[in-house]
Amino acid sequence: MDLLCVAALQLRRKEQELSRQAAGELWTANDFVFTTRYGTPFEPRNFNRRFMDRSARAGVRRIRLHDTRHTCGSLLAALDVHPRIAMQILRHSKIAVTMEVYTHVPSEATRRALRKLG
Question: Is the model's pTM score more than 0.85?
Answer without folding.
Answer: no
